[in-house]
């Protein structure tokens, strides 16, 4: 089953059940103080909070998402992309827990011939919020799931919010057991690699006034209506339906991975570190393409900086695979071809998109050349002074001012027989990170009043964008 077919099947199922199908909102909004759409619910916040009356009581969609805080997982787990598509169904004051659970279960377990996704009941486990007897009871009594496959977890796992003031609620999550060869027995509470999270059913029922962390927040009171917000990762369903090892090997991503393998002259599946790099490249190229398509341009701040880092990480990974020549023309065109049936704009806007991608790669290749010259001089000076170690501030300057990656500095220094003062470098990085965090906090504060959420969905094609972790700025390279 192709990724596009799964999306279509999902929408058809909910359309049949009286849901209005709505198009994906943009990955970014017009509001510069917020970063990206991190989940399907973000464009619906005005309806969930009741600030704007929902124009329909049921909706379903496939929402484009970017999650930069998953970047360290990409290529290492089977299931985390920086870009992914979230299948969602929504009830605004209509059905609640029992409706959400029974719809999800029916779609997952109905045979493919009858329009479902054709999964086996025995492969699923679920979690519910620790005090949510109602949801546990629905799973047991209405669905008939055995007691031992219903687990109860706390706020860290079974409470959903965006990380900022706004709507939130306890949730119930559906996990797929990939089998004993992928990890320990004991359900999702024991092993989230073997038991892969597939679908999150959020019972949106309260307004959060202050959010200090995932588990530490204040509940201001109940929402005017009880709503349903669900999210299922399209790529995760695809990896299961296509019988591949991970999401990077599904049909919308794999072609880029294969092209990177060809360009490198290496083999996928031979060396673990190389395999991770191939998966990172395939993920980042797609994310970059989708961000460019939604109007982001590489730059040194905000969203543009995130995009720049994704693109530069791609170039860096290709170099570590032995390719120094430009690769974006090939890789971006491959990603376009894999994604264009779902997003035709990738083809119609191609001249602009490829122009931006190619220019960014050229700039970075120049940066690398310039940084290498500066580093060579610094290394020669260090040696001349009879020292064994390149000073931390020199490495930091290369990183901070010239965008020259620290791992490259370490590698080249080592080839020259020198160390790098990593402790001093890390201290400087930490200081920079603290500055970035303070900056992010002051931006977040501007969003404290949920009444500022505008109704982008009603206004047209752009969408409200959630805020994600700015730490990416210091972690990516
Ligand atoms: P995980 O625990 O696996 O990181 P999550 O709990 O962070 O997932 P949710 O915020 O509950 O994810 O999002 C709803 C659904 O979206 C998930 O159940 C999953 O199917 C999908 N999803 C979340 N993050 C990603 C990602 N980075 N890449 C692909 N799919 C994702
Ligand atoms: Mg996650
Ligand atoms: Mg989770
Ligand atoms: Mg979840």
From TrEMBL:
Transmembrane segments: none annotated. Keywords: Aminoacyl-tRNA synthetase, ATP-binding, Cytoplasm, Ligase, Metal-binding, Nucleotide-binding, Protein biosynthesis, RNA-binding, tRNA-binding, Zinc. It comes from the Bacteria. One of its GO terms (molecular function) is alanine-tRNA ligase activity. Its EC number is 6.1.1.7. Its main location: cytoplasm. Residues 1-477 form the Alanyl-transfer RNA synthetases family profile domain. It catalyses: tRNA(Ala) + L-alanine + ATP = L-alanyl-tRNA(Ala) + AMP + diphosphate. Binds 1 zinc ion per subunit. Its cofactor is Zn(2+). It is found in: Cytoplasm. Catalyzes the attachment of alanine to tRNA(Ala) in a two-step reaction: alanine is first activated by ATP to form Ala-AMP and then transferred to the acceptor end of tRNA(Ala). Also edits incorrectly charged Ser-tRNA(Ala) and Gly-tRNA(Ala) via its editing domain. Consists of three domains; the N-terminal catalytic domain, the editing domain and the C-terminal C-Ala domain. The editing domain removes incorrectly charged amino acids, while the C-Ala domain, along with tRNA(Ala), serves as a bridge to cooperatively bring together the editing and aminoacylation centers thus stimulating deacylation of misacylated tRNAs. Belongs to the class-II aminoacyl-tRNA synthetase family. This is Alanine--tRNA ligase. The lineage of its organism: Bacteria, Bacillati, Actinomycetota, Actinomycetes, Micrococcales. The gene is alaS. The chain holds residues 1 to 477 of 886 of the full protein.
């Amino acid at each position: 089953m192709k990724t596009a077919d799964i999306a279509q099947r999902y929408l058809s199922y909910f359309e049949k059940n009286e849901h209005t199908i709505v198009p994906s909102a943009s990955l970014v909004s017009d509001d510069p103080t917020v970063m990206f759409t991190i989940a399907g619910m973000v464009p619906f916040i005005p309806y969930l909070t009741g600030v704007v009356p929902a124009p329909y009581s049921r909706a379903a969609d496939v929402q484009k998402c970017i999650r930069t805080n998953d970047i360290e997982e990409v290529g290492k787990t089977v299931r985390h992309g920086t870009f992914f598509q979230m299948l969602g169904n929504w009830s605004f004051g209509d059905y609640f827990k029992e409706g959400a659970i029974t719809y999800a279960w029916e779609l997952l377990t109905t045979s493919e011939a009858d329009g479902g996704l054709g999964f086996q009941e025995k492969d699923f486990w679920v979690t519910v919020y620790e005090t949510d007897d109602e949801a546990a009871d629905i799973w047991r009594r209405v669905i008939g799931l055995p007691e031992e496959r219903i687990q109860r977890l706390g706020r860290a796992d079974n409470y959903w919010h965006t990380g900022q003031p706004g709507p939130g609620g306890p949730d119930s999550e559906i996990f797929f057991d990939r089998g004993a060869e992928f990890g320990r027995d004991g359900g999702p509470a024991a092993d989230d690699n073997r038991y892969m999270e597939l679908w999150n059913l959020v019972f949106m029922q309260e307004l959060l006034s202050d959010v200090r962390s995932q588990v530490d927040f204040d509940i201001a009171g109940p929402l005017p209506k009880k709503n349903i917000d669900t999210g299922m990762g399209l790529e995760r369903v695809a990896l299961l339906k296509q019988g591949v090892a991970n999401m990077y090997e599904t049909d919308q991503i794999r072609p880029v991975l294969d092209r990177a393998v060809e360009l490198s002259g290496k083999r996928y599946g031979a060396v673990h570190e190389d395999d991770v790099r191939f998966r990172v490249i395939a993920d980042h190229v797609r994310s970059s393409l989708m961000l460019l398509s939604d109007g982001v341009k590489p730059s040194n701040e905000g969203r543009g900086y995130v995009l720049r880092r994704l693109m530069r990480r791609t170039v860096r990974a290709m170099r570590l695979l032995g390719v120094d020549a430009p690769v974006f023309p090939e890789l971006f065109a491959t990603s376009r071809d894999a994604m264009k049936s779902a997003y035709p704009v990738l083809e119609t806007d191609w001249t602009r998109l490829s122009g931006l991608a190619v220019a960014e790669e050229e700039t970075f290749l120049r940066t690398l050349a310039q940084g290498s010259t500066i580093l060579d001089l610094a290394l020669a000076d260090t040696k001349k002074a009879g020292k064994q170690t390149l000073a931390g501030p020199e490495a930091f300057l290369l990183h901070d001012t010239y965008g020259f990656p620290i791992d490259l500095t370490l590698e080249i220094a080592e080839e020259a027989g020198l160390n790098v003062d990593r402790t001093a470098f890390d201290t400087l990085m930490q200081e920079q990170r603290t500055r970035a965090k303070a900056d992010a906090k002051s931006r977040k504060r501007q969003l404290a009043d949920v009444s500022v959420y505008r109704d982008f969905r009603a206004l047209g094609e752009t969408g409200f964008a959630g805020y994600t972790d700015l730490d990416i700025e210091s972690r990516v390279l």
